[in-house]
TrEMBL record:
Taxon lineage: Eukaryota, Viridiplantae, Streptophyta, Embryophyta, Tracheophyta
Originating organism: Nicotiana tabacum (Common tobacco)
Name assigned to this protein: Uncharacterized protein LOC142165971
């Protein structure tokens, strides 16, 4: 999920568990975030992950939260600015340039607000970098 209002990139602990990344990779920090429900929450820490978006790999520093979410990752302003991306929530897509070419990445499906976080949307391929 891309959210231009978010000042941090978020990775739920459940996402790390689903893709079998151990908590020993989470580094300490003193960050408190205000969630969508307005409640302030301390993060568990931060983790650097490599995400492949379109033809590009991005190293993203995520704040790790232990809470139920309707997304696997939340890409906020830090990623948007680093990628030079232009997100569109209306069209569920994001655009950025790579090697003088415009890259357009569309959302997979229409997302329901009733999405069940226990059903994984993420698949890790053996040997793939995440």
């Amino acid at each position: 999920m891309v959210d231009g209002r978010s000042g941090v990139d978020i990775c739920p602990l459940s996402t790390l568990q689903r893709i079998k990344i151990g908590t020993e990779r989470i580094g300490p920090n003193n960050v408190c975030v205000c969630a969508f429900d307005g409640i302030k929450r301390d993060t568990i820490g931060e983790i650097d992950l490599i995400l492949t978006i379109g033809p590009m790999d991005f190293e993203v520093t995520f704040q790790v939260l232990d809470m139920d979410t309707s997304y696997n990752f939340l890409l906020g302003r830090p990623w948007i600015h680093a990628a030079g991306a232009v997100p569109s929530t209306l069209y569920q897509m994001v655009k950025f340039e790579h090697k003088d070419q415009e890259i357009v990445v569309h959302g997979e499906d229409k997302q329901s607000i009733y999405w069940d976080p226990s059903v994984p949307c993420l698949e890790a391929r053996e040997g793939a970098r995440i």
